[in-house]
Design goal:
504 residues; alpha+beta; five-stranded mixed sheet; elongated; disordered C terminus
Length: 504
């Protein structure tokens, strides 16, 4: 049957009925009573506190009533006034009955009446078209409240968020409802994250290209791992990655953060980071910036460089890309510190003096790593060490000798490259440690990834854009009405039309 769209009918509420239940008038009356009580007693700090709290409670209740009234007038009360069918995501639904529901909002819980529509396919779930039009999710909460809950969950534990909901919004949520709300919010934002990350990197690259200074802009990436407590399997390694832009004065303009819960070979993080790099280089129309890979010498960073970055070509012209692998300066310094403790004794003035001098050589002198190694060997011949100290010394010494080709720090500075992976090291702390390693915490992979995704969206600075994009892209249900069939002509009229050439 041919169908056409129609408008949603709203509830017909008389002006007298609206005025009789006007929340604004009720708010004015209540505030007058609150003020009169305040003026009737002597002024004290306690009374002024009560005045402020009472006014806040009155305003919240008035807003709750106003929100409830407006939400309930968006659908007609009579079934015969409602569309018999609606279309949503290429599926047709037919009207059933009006049902009440309790909806969580920023101002507390409201009662919402809306019609439920059944799926034309037996056994498939139905829907409330009004809920979709209002943006109400599976947790029966408004978008404004869900966004606030997700923001709180970025920094606070599950128990803290539930206590905040009860204290600030009068809502008593279970753990399951909170998790459902967060999972739905995160799932709605994910389709827009990669595009917004790319757009933010392009903006920083443009700012870096227009900046003043003697260096080329730098696009730097890095990745690292951190052990987090899991519900099953004790501690396992999660992974994080960063993508930063530096201007011509070596100032960092911003960073995009990625994170992944423990996973074999970190494949998901590898794919996400590679896709983001390729999308950014494809869209960037300016000169190719310097490309730096700044990490320590772990197995996962090493494998990513060999298998991905070293073989990467420009996605537009196919030319090879030159990635400079910078071994984190501060990570290397920890090995120099271990050699100093082994040679001179831990926390001794001689160890501190030698460490400071070698750190300066490593940073400023050409082939600084080789000079540090030679100095260490000269001191080794004059020192007596225990077996444990010798083991520490040779482990650090071999590290410097094996990876010294990645320690050209004077050259990196001349080319305007950052020397340390402090951004990535800090990501382990800001992305994981501050939220995932609190006292007594244990994580499931799926629930942890939900928190991790909303946290990286927040840290990358694209939260507001992602939330706005989600709301703008949501598909709305369309009310359907059957189109009128043309009246059938009689046999004599049809014969007349054919005689005069009027038949179709």
């Amino acid at each position: 049957m041919v169908v056409k769209h129609t408008q949603w009918p709203v509830a017909a509420t008389s002006a007298a009925a609206m005025a009789a239940s006007d929340p604004v008038d009720a708010f004015r009356t209540r505030t007058d009573q609150i003020v009169e009580r305040f003026r009737a007693v002597p002024l004290t700090p306690q009374r002024f506190l009560e005045l402020e709290n009472d006014l806040h409670a009155a305003a919240t209740e008035a807003c709750r009533c106003l929100l409830e009234r407006e939400a309930n007038r968006l659908e007609a009360d009579e079934r015969r006034e409602m569309p018999n069918k609606v279309r949503y995501r290429k599926v047709t639904y037919r009207i059933n009955k009006q049902t009440p529901a309790r909806i969580a909002t920023r101002f507390g819980t409201i009662a919402l009446r809306s019609f439920y529509y059944l799926n034309e396919e037996d056994g498939e779930p139905g829907l409330h078209p009004l809920w979709l039009r209002l943006g109400i999710g599976a947790a029966a909460a408004t978008p404004a409240l869900l966004e606030r809950v997700a923001r709180m969950s970025v920094e606070h534990t599950q128990a803290e968020v539930r206590a905040w909901l009860l204290r600030e919004h009068g809502l008593k949520w279970s753990n399951d409802r909170l998790r459902s709300a967060l999972a739905g919010f995160r799932q709605a934002l994910l389709p827009f994250v990669a595009e917004l990350q790319t757009a933010r990197l392009l903006l920083w690259l443009q700012q870096a290209e227009q900046s003043r200074g003697r260096h080329r802009p730098v696009l730097a990436t890095g990745r690292d791992g951190i052990m987090i407590p899991m519900r099953q399997g004790g501690y396992r390694e999660a992974s994080t990655a960063t993508l930063s832009v530096y201007d011509r004065r070596r100032r960092r303009l911003g960073t995009i953060y990625l994170g992944q819960m423990p996973e074999a070979k970190q494949a998901t993080l590898t794919n996400a980071l590679s896709a983001l790099l390729k999308a950014t280089l494809t869209a960037w129309q300016g000169p190719v910036p310097r490309l730096a890979y700044i990490t320590d010498k772990g197995s996962a960073p090493d494998e990513y460089y060999r298998r991905v970055l070293k073989k990467m070509k420009h996605p537009r012209d196919g030319r090879p890309l030159h990635w400079e692998w910078v071994l984190d300066f501060y990570h290397v310094c920890t090995y120099i510190g271990k050699m100093a403790d082994a040679l001179f004794g831990p926390e001794t003035p001689a160890a501190a003096q030698w460490f400071t001098k070698m750190r300066r050589w490593l940073r400023d002198r050409p082939q600084g790593a080789a000079q540090v190694s030679r100095s260490a060997m000269q001191h080794l011949e004059r020192r007596r060490m225990s077996k444990a100290q010798k083991a520490e010394f040779w482990k650090a010494y071999r590290y410097l000798r094996r990876h010294r080709r990645l320690m050209d720090y004077p050259g990196y500075r001349r080319r305007g490259l950052p020397l340390g992976s402090g951004v990535t090291e800090a990501a382990c702390k800001t992305v994981f440690t501050q939220r995932f390693k609190r006292s007594g915490m244990r994580w499931h992979g799926e629930t942890g990834q939900v928190i991790l995704d909303v946290r990286t969206i927040h840290l990358s600075g694209i939260w507001d854009e992602a939330f706005a994009a989600d709301l703008a892209a949501r598909e709305m249900p369309l009310p359907l009405l059957p189109a009128r069939r043309p009246a059938r002509k009689g046999r004599h009229a049809a014969d007349r039309d054919r005689a005069f050439g009027l038949a179709a």
